[in-house]
Write a structure and sequence with these properties.
There is one protein chain. By secondary structure, the chain is mainly beta. It has a single domain, classed as monomeric porin ompg (Porin), CATH 2.40.160.40. About 5% of the residues lie in helices and about 50% in strands. The chain contains two helices and 20 strands. The strands form four sheets. The protein has a twelve-stranded antiparallel beta barrel with strand order 1-5-6-8-9-12-13-16-17-18-19-20.
Amino acid sequence: MKKISSYTVFIVFIFIAFHTPKIAAQGCVAVRQMGGLYMNSASSYNLGKGEFQVGTNYRYFHSWRHFVGKEEQLERQTKGGGHDENGVERGNAVNIYSHAVDFNFSYGITDRIQINATLPYVHNERSQVLRQATPIKDTLRYSVYAQGFADARISVNYWFFDPKTAHKGNLMLGVGVKLNTGSHTKMDDAPQTDGTTKSVMMDQAIQPGDGGIGIAAELQVFRQITGRLYGFANGYYLFNPKESNGSFKSPPKEGLEGYEIYACPDQYFARAGLSAAVDKKENFSVSLAGRIEGIPAYDAFGGQVAYRRPGYVIAIEYGFAYHIGKHNFSLFIPYNIVKNRIQSAADIASQNLQNSVITDPSKYVHVQGDAAFADYSVNLGYSYRFSLGKKMKVTMH
């Protein structure tokens, strides 16, 4: 196998270990669970011809902070949720607890081309408040759940420069298909205002899938800055042209027909930062990156008349990675420093409808919904690389 420098091995290991946008919903802004390639290998930054890599990634977050735009709705934490046993008023914030596991598989067709497949599994909980009218007037909190396999992804990546010689930097492009293998119609039993229990459609934010087939495009680049220090950047966009998935959020409103049905939204991700090996044996690496991920108000292609909670988060991401032999481990914790629930197409349509009958422009209304966001997420990864029928040889220097 080709010779590579130890600096390249470990620095690019950090970069690649989390290169694919393992996008997790940040709460009610339903950025879909997406999986991808985990090429964090101790042998090289690319998969050589005939090499396999298998891995898994676990992700967790808890969303509970409500925002309209960039303004946090602090009262959601303290008001509107009834009272506890001591008479203290409780909040009515929606809480989402999300656990996700990705199963990843990759294969090197050549030294520059590799195919990747990922199947995620999710277990989501949504805790919310109900104002019960009968048989006892009360305000109570309850949870509903949605779990199962999420939307799978198949992709192909291509390195522009030959990895055998491009040790100090490279550029990779990828294209893929996001399948609709995850259910977007999960139901669960939920209490009703009249004291009964009814099986209802789960909110879009916790559904395993979005109901659409999408096309994904991604870009990666890394470059040695000096010694063990490397810079990297990667971006991703999912084109989800299907307008809606047919599941109903709420009864239709006159003049706003179509916006009561859940959308199949686009989503995006970008990340850039620095990484470095820190120990003498160069088994342990750290990284620091800035990242943004979110859902736009309108899709790049396809219809726009459907319901979504668009928005984005900007985060500072701390990364740690360790390898031993063919085994690779990683921990990444993005901490969200900006949370923004932007106006949706439904918000704008409702705003235009209401303002169309107002003659005094000074009395025009502004319509903008809220969404719950997480402060951070935890991402644990593991991968193992192997080849069949030949031994891998790595020269470190």
